[in-house]
Amino acid sequence: MRFTSISTRLSLATLAIVSSMGQGFSEPLIEKALRDLESKPPISDESFDFVVMGDSRSSQPLGLPETFKTILREADSLQPRFVVDCGDLILGGAAEGIGPQWDEFEEVVAGCAAPFFPVAGNHDISDSATERIWLERMGPTQYSFRVGNSLFIALNTEEVNALDRISEDQVRWLKGLLEATDAKHIFCFMHKPYFAQDWDDNWSNVAEALRGHPVRIVFGSDIHLYRDCGVREGVHYVITGGGGAPIHTPEEEGGFHHYLLVQVRGEEVSWSVIRPGSILPSDVVTADRVNELRAIRKQWVGTEPVEVPHGEGLDRAVKVRIRNPYDTSFSSNLEWEVPDGWSVEPRETVYTTQPNATTELEFRVKAAGPASVLFPAPMLHTVFEKTRYGGPVRVDRELDLIPTTVAKRAPAALAIDGDLKDWSGANPVPVSYPHGFDPNDKTDLESRVRFQWHPDCFYLAVETWDDEFHQPYAGDIVWLADNVELFLDAWSWGLSLTQAGPEAFLYWGVNRSRETVNTEVQLAVKRDGRLTVYEAGFPKDVVLPMRLEPNASCRFSMIMNDLDGSVPDRPRHWLELTPGAGSGSGEFPRMKVILGE
Predict the structure, then answer these.
(1) What HEC string does 211-263 produce?
(2) pLDDT surpasses 80 at 469
(3) What is the pLDDT of residue 183?
(4) What is the architecture of the domain spanning 12-285?
(5) Segments making up each domain of the chain, as ranges
(6) Do domains 12-285 and 404-595 have the same CATH topology?
(7) Share of the chain above pLDDT 70, in %
(8) Is the pLDDT of residue 283 over 90?
(9) Residues 414, 28: Cα–Cα separation, whole Å
(10) Of the chain's two ends, which shows fewer C-beta atoms within 10 Å, N or C?
């Protein structure tokens, strides 16, 4: 058996020296795995198994998921040649606070009998400081090794300041490996599955490097699900993100904990999807079926948008549209689930959709008054009887209710100082959907948000009344304690008062390095007794594609997180502007904010 390990930053030899000069850690995990691999040559160069997983992190700083530990135990019983984890090994956060997380991780994987190869994920590396910790404790951020007739390549999607693709420097490194190898099979591992995003923008440079080489499978994770993404240009692409992190995707779309057992048998390569206690075929969830399910549930069945200004009632005709793109008609039944304070007429109807046509059904939707125009809204239920890649699909689709509000135009640029004396006339919107606490307990948590704008900046102010302020964190885990999470079109932000001062953290956005502290946003946080005021100004470049001009708009939601540090057993709880914003699913209603004249 031969193996190599190459990094654009550090070789393993250099890495061992750095580690010996550090805090007394043992050899980096990748170096140990390579040494173990070399010391136990395979029985056959042409026949061996390996395990792949991804996203094995916890949702708390300490306490790795039992699912991850179970996978490692089952891997021992399967006796693979090695194990690869495609990233997000720890929850992460600011560099100064993640040492205990890495301690726990290394302790857990030390019990894995097979050599364990980690791949860097966005929770593992978020900036230069956390990258240095990875290099010291794990090893190179990109590397390769050889087993028998196969070459294995770990790519790094977490290059600091890289924008949503593998850098050209790393692609040159990859090309050198591919051109120098005589391996019959090549496997690539990475965290963010850029191949599942925009192929031209996010993956074309790597796809070109892979072309003409015997690359069998590219594995990615980051999305907490399993998906066989099919073959493109001779390469099979697979997402495996079920190693223990929270799951928010429906099971039939791949949302279940799992790992993969990959088998190399001479010229043949295959894999099985394994849950604890069961083995599933590789096509248990296909891209074709997922695309059909999503089209039916999110595009082909639904209501027209129903915009309601904040504080107004509702009484109007609403259309439900059912599209049938197939060549035969089908009939089904549609009924409404109607919450208190709402009414829908008729409550139930039978319909028939013609081939390649759209059926429109009209219903009268009313709310008893402005106080009733709340979520949950009425929800329709039907069964889409005609499908191509599986059985009939049940559809549960809520009325497309869109609360709206108007952002006041500021006469001049605002001073961001936490003093809201220049916010008169900007109407507050209550953040009114509680999660994890008594909604009537206003002493625990109460919050509201206001909006203004100017041609150069979009402003918001969040006022929060809380019985205890507690924020011990910094970096990408500030949401674990008192913090404002914002969802503004294609942007997601965290606004916090950390021990080092106000911090605006960018989770994702447009043409910006993700998961990093941002210095473009102006932020002031001012506390006065129970009241904490977060005042922020977002320059026009960080609200793109929204235009800062009259009648432009954005879709917005937010979470006001709360952690009472003086009560050790009290879990984090929060308020949401729209329900589901704190679910982690990425799919929830949003308010429409319209820029006033």
Answers:
(1) CCCCEEEEEECCCCCEEEEEEECCEEEEEECCCCCCCCCCHHHCCCCCEEEEE
(2) yes
(3) 97
(4) 4-Layer Sandwich (3.60)
(5) 12-285, 292-399, 404-595
(6) no
(7) 96
(8) no
(9) 50
(10) C
